[in-house]
Amino acid sequence: MYEMTYIVRPDIDADAKKALVERFDAILTDNGASIAESKDWSSRRFAYEIAGYHEGTYHIVNFTAEDDKAINEFDRLAKISEDILRHMVVNREVKSEAK
């Protein structure tokens, strides 16, 4: 299970943000990932300026993938996109219940 967090610039309108989220969710699924959850976390103020912005909307996607193809493609396209200020992927270990 992976968790991807990315920050969307704050001055994007609601329709454009929805399209951006759908586009990047599709990038993951088109490259073999299975999305468990995709949701906005919150809008937060940054500790320092990022690309001229002092705040942004954090979006979190939890997904599974067999290989790194989906992650690499998301990473490549997120770096090009002016609407995504930062992104990060972490591998979340699924803990099994103790018997």
UniProtKB/TrEMBL annotation:
One GO location term (cellular component): ribosome
Keyword Glycoprotein in annotation: no
GO molecular function, one term: structural constituent of ribosome
Keywords: Ribonucleoprotein, Ribosomal protein, RNA-binding, rRNA-binding
CDD domains from the UniProt entry: bS6
Pfam families the UniProt entry points to: Ribosomal_S6
Keyword Lyase: no
GO biological-process terms attached to the record: translation
Matches recorded under SUPFAM superfamilies: Ribosomal protein S6
Function according to Swiss-Prot or TrEMBL: Binds together with bS18 to 16S ribosomal RNA.
Similarity annotation: Belongs to the bacterial ribosomal protein bS6 family.
HAMAP family tied to this protein: Ribosomal_bS6
Protein name stated in the entry: Small ribosomal subunit protein bS6
